[in-house]
Amino acid sequence: MAVRAKTVFLSLFALLVVVVLGGITAVGWQVVLGPDARPVTSTAFEVTEARLARGKYLAEGPTHCFFCHTEHDMSTPEYPLVDSKKGAGWVMPIPQLNHIASKNITPDKETGIGDWSDDEVARAIREGVRKDGTALFLLMPYMDFASLDDEDVKSIVVYLRTIPAVQNTVPVRSLPGPLEYIVKTMPKPLTTPQPSHPSSTPAERGKYLVTMAGCGTCHSPTDAEGTPLPGLGFAGGGVFSLPDQPGKLVCTANITPDPSGMAHYDEGLFHETMRTGQIPGRMLNHIMPFSAFRNMTDEDISDIYSFLKTVPSVKHRVSNTDPPTACPLCNQTHGLGDRNVKQ
Ligand code: HEC
Ligand code: HEC
Predict the structure, then answer these.
(1) What is the number of structural domains in the chain?
(2) Are residues 179 and 269 both part of a single domain?
(3) Residues 206 and 335 placed together within one structural domain of the fold
């Protein structure tokens, strides 16, 4: 009996091992071993005037680092940044993610990234791996930033070193459900040089900017796991709950060239929207980061406009002024949702 029981136990154990191994290979060994990461170099990036200027432009404009990495005053609808805490991290008003905090990216040695090497910072930005080898959650848009060329990421790092150090410790992340495991499987090392983009046409330059600015990430609907829904790129329907107005939602707009999207925009209106957040009849919610995008040059805003004209038109009515109804296209609830038809 004893022997039999033992065999049964052993085979059960074996089965368990198979199941566990199967699970691990399905989601990746990174769950146990930590994320894929390349070794970093300790060589400092050369500081030049050109890099300082370009880094400041990218960080304060299209990549809107400080929009996420600085505390906002949520008591007014403009959600202004608390300037004295620039870059010092922010406990984000996202209850679904247990209020994950963006990190302190000031040069403070104790609580910021002052003791990270330049390449460690660059790796975090484009590849999602921290100094200690752990993975960043995707709310840090490293997958969008992976498109940054080497010169641009170096410029951002060189500039980040020049902002005032602020001492501020943010809470440790605690993601709900299996997310803590899934994040480890996401980082993909960049092991080849990323040359500067040959910026030949306005639309190509615009695409590069749109990617680093995360327009598509916010303006495309996803399923419950965060995977973009096929065929709905730039078609709006990303839903945010408003921290200052409990129960109220704001939904990203359709920015494809369709009549339900940006067909009514000309270049002048687009410039005004990107700089002021003002659209005919009302002010956009400040979750749309025009407070950073307004720092972009006219030429870059025009290039973004040119690129958006080339994305496939998608018919998806989205409104933030009509009462929310269920949408069969993006499976979210938003204004004019019931006016959409599943293709
Ligand atoms: C949409 C919001 C958002 C934007 C935009 C953003 N970040 Fe982050 N970033 C985060 C969050 C959230 C984390 C923390 C993620 C975590 O804890 O897993 C983070 C983490 C980091 C880290 C890791 C620091 C550490 O101590 O772990 C660095 C470095 C960083 N960001 C730099 C930048 C830079 C530079 C930019 C602009 C080029 C930027 N981020 C833009 C949200 C953002
Ligand atoms: C953090 C998420 C986020 C990012 C990143 C973002 N947007 Fe938005 N955007 C929004 C939200 C939310 C709205 C809707 C706000 C409202 O209706 O009050 C919006 C509205 C807009 C509108 C107004 C459309 C209209 O007329 O109703 C335009 C145009 C726009 N975004 C373009 C862009 C472009 C171009 C980019 C990239 C350069 C971008 N957005 C990046 C969240 C985002």
Answers:
(1) 2
(2) no
(3) yes
Residue 139 lies in a domain: yes
Q: Do you know the residue count of the chain?
A: 343
Q: For residue 144, what are its two tokens?
A: 């969008």
Instruction: Report the residue among 56, 57, 68, 91 best suited for mutation to probe ligand 1: largest number of ligand atoms under 8 A from its CB.
Output: 68
pLDDT by position in tens, the chain (length 343): 333 333 333 333 333 333 444 444 555 667 677 888 999 999 999 999 999 999 999 999 999 999 999 999 988 888 899 999 999 999 998 888 899 999 999 999 999 999 999 999 999 999 999 999 999 999 999 999 999 999 999 999 999 999 999 999 999 999 888 888 889 999 999 999 999 976 689 999 999 999 999 999 999 998 877 788 999 999 999 888 887 777 888 999 999 999 999 999 999 999 999 999 999 999 999 999 999 999 999 999 999 999 999 999 999 999 999 999 999 999 999 999 999 998 7
Please check whether residues 86 and 180 belong to one and the same domain: yes
Tell me which of 134, 160, 185 is where a domain ends.
Answer: 185
Verdict on whether the full-model pTM lies above 0.90: yes
Q: How far is CA 3 from CA 12, 14, 16, 46, 151, in A?
A: 14, 16, 20, 69, 67
Which range marks the domain in which residue 74 is found? 49-185
Ligand 2 cavity residues, CB under 6 Å: 210, 213-215, 218-219, 240, 250, 252-253, 255, 273, 279, 284-285, 287-289, 293, 304, 320
Distances (CA, A) of 37 to 3, 14, 116, 191: 46, 31, 16, 10
- Distance from Cα 139 to the centre of ligand 2, integer Å: 17
Is the same domain home to 299 and 263?
yes
